[in-house]
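Q: what sequence does this backbone want?
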């Protein structure tokens, strides 16, 4: 972790070489530190070691743009499908530049499962729940897994065992038909509406 003003000071050969090495170290570590560099340049990148986010200086060099958590496989969820009505954006060659083209599948075979966040987040995935016995599916509170508002997760009952959704502490699951899967191969999804409120829809019963 290092930061530098990128101005080489006058001095002896050894001093100047040391200054160059310090500047190169700052480049190699993306100007990382607990606070922003004191000397900034347009488009400069910097990793904040306090919140773990990647920041980039704007074109006018008047502020920082937050590009999200560097530990995430996807920086800035808002950049995905960001065109009008969430239609994927295309570049001049007709290639998709901002969209998730396929759902990642998270296969689960136990009799209990709680959705997860972090690096292996279930957000935007299809979670398959397959067992011959009944399965309990828990949606955790925001205090445990802080999914962003608007997060969607899909589920499927893969085996004979029916799946019953269970809200974590303080969680509200809003479903018209119930919280029990309708049978083998039934599919449903949830969408986070508020801090601890999820809309539930799909092949469910009570």
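A:
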């Amino acid at each position: 972790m290092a930061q530098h003003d990128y101005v080489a000071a006058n001095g002896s050969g050894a001093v100047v070489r040391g200054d160059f090495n310090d500047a190169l170290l700052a480049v190699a570590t993306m100007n990382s530190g607990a606070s922003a560099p004191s000397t900034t340049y347009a488009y400069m990148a910097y990793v904040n070691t306090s919140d773990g986010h990647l920041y980039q200086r704007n074109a006018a060099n008047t502020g920082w743009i937050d590009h999200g958590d560097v530990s995430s496989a996807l920086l800035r969820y808002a950049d995905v499908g960001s065109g009008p009505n969430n239609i994927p954006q295309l570049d001049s060659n007709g290639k998709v530049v901002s969209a998730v083209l396929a759902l990642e599948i998270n296969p689960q075979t136990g009799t209990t499962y709680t959705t997860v966040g972090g690096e292996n987040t279930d957000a935007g995935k299809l979670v398959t729940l397959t067992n011959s016995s009944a399965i309990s599916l828990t949606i955790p509170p925001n205090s445990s897994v802080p999914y962003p508002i608007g997060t969607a997760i899909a589920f499927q009952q893969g085996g004979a065992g029916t799946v019953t959704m269970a809200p974590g502490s303080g969680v509200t699951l809003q479903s018209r038909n119930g919280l029990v899967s309708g049978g083998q191969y039934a599919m449903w999804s949830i969408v986070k509406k508020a801090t601890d409120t999820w809309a539930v829809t799909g092949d469910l019963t009570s």
